[in-house]
Amino acid sequence: DTPKRVIDVPVLTVTANRVNEMFSKPTRKLFGTRTLSGTEGESADDYMSATNSSYLIPKFDGQWYAVKDADGNLHLASDASDNSVYASFLSMDGKSMGVGELIFDADGNAKSIHLYGNTIPINLDTFQEMVTVALCNNPSSGTEEIIDMFTLQGTNATLVKDSYANLGISDVEVKISIADMYDVQHEIKPLLKLAGAGHVQTYGDKGATQEGNGIVIGTTGQSKRLEQFSVSLPEGTDGSIEYRGHLQGIGWNGWVKDGAPCGTTGESRRIEAVQMTLTGAVANDYSVWYRVHSQTFGWLGWAKDGQAAGTAGQSKRAEAVEVQALPKGQVPGDYVEGQASYIGAATADVHLQGTGWAGSGSALEFGTTGQSRRLEAIGITTPNQPEAGGVTYEVHAQGIGWMGAVADGALAGTTGQSRRLEAVRVSLTGDMANDFSVWYRVHSQTYGWLGWAHDGEEAGTTGLSKRAEAIDVQILPQGQVPGDYDGSAACVTR
């Protein structure tokens, strides 16, 4: 019946298992006042005393500290501040110098030793004696637990801040508890070590390489198409990883899982896009993140849990796929919100001034630029997309205005009347509209390329007698934007 108090930063104790050695990893204390569910100005230290608890800021992935010695070995450390770690220091004859902090400069290089009780730090630029550094938890806790040790001479050590996985820590568990109030446990799930392989142009079968928290299948910088790939979870995982690809000349193939090959060999057929998802119990705690290194575009943005990644309808080869399985709520270290993970192309017939019907083709851009030629009519379709659905579109024509929406390849505009198109509106239909957005922009007389519109917004000009000369169409997962999106106006009106 005790009222629950909501706090922004939970009471925390961290234990981790590294190379079969269990140790307590204390974190920086939270000082100052904060609101604890309706109680204004309650001190964090008062709360610690009142509940007999430790009130500590959690250290999640990407915020762990270690010291790299002169031989390149990493030694886990407990941070005293942003640029220092707790340690006790011994001279080479075994005599204690005291406890305090090893301090680093802004570049992460060892700078000085601060012994508690001494007001003047020991400058390591001038102090060249060898010292044994025993990295420990906060000495003021009363129990000086040694975490790791190394030998220091001068400034030959650096501070490293990285994820617990990259620092060699496994099975990290975070427990949260507040005495007399409530007990909660929250576990930071260990990263899943994926395995995979691919079949690459020229090279044939090629194993995946470990990259950060995941794997990379294929090559970059060599202009080699990825023709087949497979991914699997660690043995004993309760669940599966399923995946499929968009293949040259075939489109989206069927789903396979758990190390089964996706794609082809011996057919010189490129993979262009992929989708992946987790199933079973593992999907409750983890998300699968993946991205494609695509011809022309390079690394596209990250997709996850069934979203499309890569390109379709542009004849662009996928050259590599990077895959990570991360605990729910975590994102890859280089994740950029809104960056397009998938760029789908439309197919269009366009009727151009002086040419007539220019024929259908799958691309991102339709019409002409730099030729002062008007678009007169257009018909758009969206084949080979990851989900069922179609497209509707409406044009604003000279002397007519908005002509009413048509769908899936039907004529929008006029022919044989020399009427210019001036603006467009485009929308997706069916299942595609639930998970994807259609982005489009118009190359307009006088203005050139206007800004991007999406999902039924107006793009082009109205009331200004300006011809539309070209239209650029991209199909992206919802929440993502074109690479050159800058928020500029998509439609100019009188």
Walk me through what this model shows.
By secondary structure, this protein is mainly beta. The strands form ten sheets. Strands 7, 8, 9, 10, 11, 12 and 13 form a seven-stranded antiparallel beta sheet that branches. Strands 19, 20, 27, 28, 29 and 31 form a six-stranded antiparallel beta sheet that branches. It is elongated. The termini are far apart.
In short:
3% of the residues lie in helices and 49% in strands. It is mostly beta strands.
Q: Tell me the number of strands.
A: 48
Major sheet details: 7 strands, antiparallel
In terms of per-residue confidence, which ranges show pLDDT below 50 for 5 or more consecutive residues?
A: 1-62, 171-187
- Rg estimate, integer Å: 30 Å
Shape: elongated
Span from first to last CA? 65 Å
- In round numbers, the mean pLDDT is 82
The fraction of residues assigned to DSSP E strands is: over 45%
Helix content: under 10%
Determine the number of helices (DSSP H or I, runs of at least 4 residues).
Answer: 3
- Helical/strand content category: mainly beta
